[in-house]
Design brief:
Length: 321
């Protein structure tokens, strides 16, 4: 039979699996009597764990309490939390770095050597590449998330890419973390259309507006909608090409935010892309490395494609083959 402290930890680990346990089942698992289980449950309650009795079934479950008691984590959970805290310490959400570092310090201090080695190995092998992420206020994130969950209209001050300010009234759909930035996908009430807003440019106004009935996104899912908005509609130059390959093949070569693939048939698909200039469109399209036919785009795009082809032919003149 387990000692009292070890038995309490085992009991707590069972209760943290987020299911209801019959008292008899717990007693069998721990090889004790039902009376001992009842006493151990009272001990956990005295330590701050909200163990609720299930009415009518003589069972128990772990609920939410007024304060956060200590948690038991298995090896995989401990590594996952440690890595997540380290990312939060230098991530895109402003104002939580110090709290994340304090929590990380406490967790790493009690990690067993085998887990500390795994975390250190992962950290040593990881290199952060790219520009710093746009910082957002955690209070802003929470205000947006709550409006999405409650389905309440959200009004906010918004600064465009060019710095122009406006007041927007929206029906928020989803809060999305995409390519190291936070975005709100919402129905713009005044403009009567779907819009994507960068959260770091938003300042929510309180209180929120009336409740609304959620609308369905045109593309069906928020990932496709956001990818289309970021890769095409947000750019001044837009184009569509017919790729001579299946949509499955093309999708594997198109990274998030680069473009939107739409199947035409089993052997061809459309790729919708956007960029700052026609020359940049040439690079985006050619980087997919598939045969294509230009369907639509700015008049200068055809000339830019021809100039690129001439440049490539000249580059290999006289090169041994």
């Amino acid at each position: 039979m387990l000692e009292t402290s070890a038995r309490l930890l085992k009991l707590l680990a069972l209760l943290q699996t987020h299911r209801e346990w019959a008292g008899a089942e717990l007693a069998e698992r721990l090889d004790v009597t039902g009376r001992t289980i009842r006493r151990d449950v009272e001990r956990l309650r005295d330590l701050g764990y909200p163990v609720h009795a299930t009415r009518g079934t003589s069972g128990y479950r772990l609920g939410a309490g007024a304060a956060l008691p200590p948690l038991l984590l298995d090896d995989e959970e401990a590594v996952a939390v440690t890595v997540s805290l380290r990312s939060a310490a230098d991530g895109s959400v402003g104002g939580i770095e110090e709290s994340a570092l304090r929590a990380l310090s406490k967790l790493e201090q009690v990690l067993p050597p085998r887990l500390r080695h795994r975390v250190a190995t992962l950290r040593a092998a990881t290199v952060r590449v790219g520009a710093p992420a746009a910082r957002v206020d955690p209070d802003t994130l929470m205000a947006i998330a709550e409006a999405c969950q409650r389905r309440e209209q959200l009004r906010f001050d918004y600064s465009s890419h060019g710095g122009a300010g406006s007041i927007r009234k929206t029906e928020p759909h989803s809060l999305v973390h995409f390519s190291r930035r936070w975005y709100l996908v919402a129905w713009d009430v005044d403009r009567g259309d779907w819009r994507t807003f960068r959260v770091d440019r938003m300042t929510p106004r309180v209180p929120t507006g009336p409740r609304f009935t959620p609308r369905e996104l045109p593309e069906g899912d928020v990932a496709t909608h956001l990818s289309r908005g970021l890769s095409q509609h947000a750019w001044p130059q837009q184009a569509t090409v017919l790729l001579h390959a299946s949509a499955e093949t093309a999708t594997a070569r198109v990274w998030p935010g680069m473009g939107v693939v739409e199947a035409v048939d089993d052997s061809t698909c459309h790729l919708h892309v956007g960029a700052e200039t026609p020359e940049a469109l040439v690079w985006v399209i050619s980087s997919v490395d598939l045969d294509f036919t230009l369907i639509s785009g700015p008049p200068e795009l055809a000339s830019a494609l021809e100039a690129q082809s001439v440049r490539c032919r000249r580059a290999v003149e006289g090169f041994p083959r």
